[in-house]
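2024-03-11 09:14:02 INFO queue: dequeued item Raptor N-terminal CASPase-like domain-containing protein, len=1283
2024-03-11 09:14:02 INFO validating residues
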Amino acid sequence: MEIATPDDTEPGQNAGPSPPGEEDQHGDEACGVFAQHCTYLADLRHHSLQALISFGPPDTGLLSKWRMKDRMKTVSVALVVCLNIGVDPPDIIKVSPCARMECWIDPSSLAPQKALDTIGKNLQSQYALWQPRARYKLALDPTADEVKKLCSQCRKNAKSDRVLFHYNGHGVPKPTVNGELWFFNKSYTQYIPLSVYELESWLGVPSIYVLDCSGAGVVVNAFIERPDWALGSSSVSAKDCILLAACRATEMLPQSSGMPADVFTACLTTPIKMALRWFCSRSLLEFDPELIDKIPGSQNDRKTLLGELNWIFTAITDTIAWNVLPPDLFQRLFRQDLLVATLFRNFLLAERIMRSVNCSPACYPCLPLTHQHSMWFAWDMAAETCLSQLPSLVKDPNAEFQPSPFFTDQLTAFEVWLEHGSASKRPPEQLPIVLQAIVLLSQSHRFRALVLLGRFLDMGAWAVNLALSVGIFPYVLKLLLTTATELRQILLFIWAKILAHDKSCQVDLVKDGGHKYFIRFLDSPDVYAEQQAMAAFVLSVIIDGLPRGQIECFQSGLIDICLRHIVPARGEPLLMQWLCLCVGKIWDGFAKAQLLALHTNASSTLAQLLSEPQPEVRAAAAYALGTIIKAKSVNEEDSALDDDDEEARLRMEQDVMKTLLKVVNDGSPLVRAELAIALARLTVRHDQNLRFAAAAYLKPPSNPGIMALAGLNSNRTPTSSVNISGQFFFSGNARGTASAPASPEGFNFVENELINGLMRPRRLQMEESGVYVRCVAAAYSLVRDPCPWVAKLGHEVLRRIGVEAYVMQTGKTLKSGAKQATSAFPRSSSWFDSNIGSLTMPFRGASSSASPPSNLLSGSPMNMRRVPSLEFPSESDSGLGSSQVPASDDFKELPESVLYRWSCGHFARPLLETSHDEEETALIAREARERTALEGASKCRHSTVNVVTYQMATWDMNSEYGTKAVLLHPFLPLACTADDNETIRIWSHEDGSLLNDFHNHESHSKGFSRLCLINELDESLLLAASSDGSVRVWRDYLVKGEQQLATAWQAIQGHRPGARGINAVVEWQQSTGYLYASGDISSIMIWDVDAETLVLRLPSQPDTSVSAMAASLIHNGLFLAGCGNGSFMMFDVRKQDKQVFSQKAHFQRVAGIDFVQSGIDTTEVVSASQAGDIKIYDVRKLDLPVVSVEAHKGHLTSLAAHRYAPVLASGSSKQSIKVFSATSGDQLSMIRYHQSIFGKSIGPVSCLSFHPYSVLLAAGASTDSIVSIYAEDGAAASNSSTS
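2024-03-11 09:14:37 INFO prediction written
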């Protein structure tokens, strides 16, 4: 016999290691240990099946708080100037020289009245620069009545918008302690006080007050100290009033001649000019302040020097505010109203300048101190750079100014933060500057800022929230109108990150036509597949739950684009997945799109993906196929179809279901769940046909054609000449509980169908009827799914058909021995008893006289089974136990797929950088385990095992079901056990404590087969195989109550006719990721566990079943299968002829088989039969055994071979364990009694297992619940000396 070498390897198969004899000692050991390098079931879908529904963006968006719910604008401005030029207020003593400038005008240089008019006009023009569309009203030296009239008029004009009231009180006394402002009488002989509360009643809300006078803080205090913010019957909200005051209540305005008299107003309305003049007065460099008025350009033109300075100033003040203010206050003051935002930015400058002269501006809402913020130094540098160029620019108007390095430096600082920042650290203070850089016309700044923004958004939801709250959204939305090709990829990435966390942005994209940008990107020929997948994701979010988005994308030809790219996308799983999800979202609930998909045969394109190796792709294809089936309509444009179109649609939907039924036995719960949801959708408009099919399924017609159409066994072959006129009918409403159907003679029945409000007959052909029977059979199969989530969906399908309660009642009746169950459906007991039940579970009851069907779902790659014992788990808490479906049942009751929302989680996670810390931690842990494994393997290989009788640990599981499987953890002092009730327990064999216990499943059908560890050298997973062929994989199984189901599937489908059960036998091979499964079936099924798909189905011996299996640790794809007739077979999946050897080794059933490494260059096979004989073969010559041992006189129940040490162990139901040398066959020891339970005999041995890296033997019994661990006698002496 030859083991496959690389030359024999089939295409697509991994070449195995060299044959035995070609490796040295260390290489052989390393191969055995490090063959397990691959890690399986580590994808997101495996972390928790139950948590799938929590992934993805919610319907309203995670982060929609950043949106301003009540955007405002200041549309009316009242400018009140009380100067009384030439007359100083009585309470103000002015120094000489003192500040004189008002709105940059010296009042003494003009006649008093002309100066007043000029100052008023300048003030208006200064405000108009920031809000040109507002309506301005001037009141120069007004009386109180004029102020009242002015305020009333402004509020009338503004309606519900904001009014600004600017008060310059430099020519009147300070406000009174009660918060009263001074105005004039008509003859200007008296000062008239006006309560601020009266002023507030005239202006109303919302409003903003700018108070430029000495002691202005008195007015702010008067507002704050109001007990209820109410006057009379009009309620005034504190949030609707904003106040900016030049100084505190006890302070006077600065009178320095180097500043204007209205320095506060100058800061608020002409910030650049004021900031530069103030900088000149403090700078060590000599600058001519008069040149400031000659700075070229416009502050709205970012390409000019003045415009750049204004942009830098905006960026700096925004940054300061964003870093010091709470998010809600920042949104309200700096994003809600354009003019308010400008005034508060400039207020920060006023605080910096006026505090330098011992004057403290005040405001409401109160702001923290910002005059010493570090960003002001960046402004000083920008100002210095500007002023240093100013003389040459003024001298030569054609000279070009050198842009400031401000944005470049700040983007560099932001980039440095990205290298080291995280959610746990302080947010980057440069984020608002990144926003301003994006708005800049400079392409270099814009592109770099977008790239850095993308990196920031990739850090998670918190980063997206910060970016949106700072105001990034409208600018990236506007950038979709650009034609710059260099921005396409980064814009796509930014939008993918935004939509992954906030779905609400879809409305804005559709409104602005942004979907067209991403459709063009998806259809571009020169983009990477990953970027196309990202574009498909963005488009799917735009469509998701938004009818207008569906219509716009449908009209843009998105369906055709997606379908055209599916076939070329083979090999790109992410792209295939999102193309399927995208088209599924387009036609979900959109009748026009569904019809287009049906008429263009889109299902055939999608069907090609149902065999892809990636479960996510298969599930996405099943999702897209399922949404073709019409179950609801969310688009108003979906008008009623004529009858012919409706009939054509129903027939095409049947074809879609034929395609979908192929995945009923898929290894991934994601895929099977999509089939269940599609079946639930089918019940909306095909419910009558499904109910007829369910009736026929429960009571088969006498005509054999029906069974043949459904894929059922029949001794007669149906022909097309069968003419059956029998009819099924139900009374009552279509969704209610139906009356008993007439006993059918066939399945060519007439259905009265309601189409467009008219009842019309429609005859179902036999082929159509067969589809519905297969759908019902699939629903029964899903009810018994190993994954609880899928099983619950299967129950929902049966509930919607209206037969679940009947089936549950029938199962209970059968269990209690009743001959006939009371039901709405008459049935034949004999056929029902032999054919109804779990379609994917083994036979548990008495043997049936009728042979079960060999292929229930025609076209399915795997056979379905029916069993006589039908026991559905109770679902009383889920409301699924009733067959009565309310007549008012609406579409919301349909189970919804979680695949889409879960898939969105891919783009919500970091895509650019992975967590190196976690990878390094996992790598260090793995290397430590590898060292332990290598040392243990070497020690075991070179050890001389003598006697293994020392009972180092024992514990009682307190279970009435005995022990069915035991497994020793390779790196922790733990043992995993399972009983026949499928209760899994994790024990510490150091102190005997129970770490965890849980049920493998809650189904009534029990029976355990095998425990295996997956990813032994990493964070291991526990594979639990039941005797019915179902397999479940658990993660976090070592922690009490933390175990989670990673995946579950039915590893064995079909069974041998007449067999009472599956008696599943499974074996895991880490090096290939294959699970080999067989039992009382005529084949061996090989599953790719990571792809969750069946890769091979090898025929076994036709006259017997597989009773034991073992996989080679060294040779990939090499495994053994022992049979019930005493023979064993060797398979090599890498070879063309998979079965490489078959040997009749025993006369009775093979009870155990394994590979043994008995030497450095020798691989042997050990086989034991139920008769008690053990035989060892050399793999190089399997014709004759090397060693034969009569271990027991019959009743051998289990065999265990050590992975590296030359030692075997066998157990007998006669309460004995024997240990043998794997090289000579000599008996080394025998165990018959417990050492710690007063010499009590051990129980009938049911399972044995060696520790892989030390000579420890675990044993369990079938009649008691005691589990023991035995070690070499030398270990006992060592423990005694240590103690």
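2024-03-11 09:14:37 INFO annotate: The chain has 37 helices and 40 strands.
2024-03-11 09:14:38 INFO item closed
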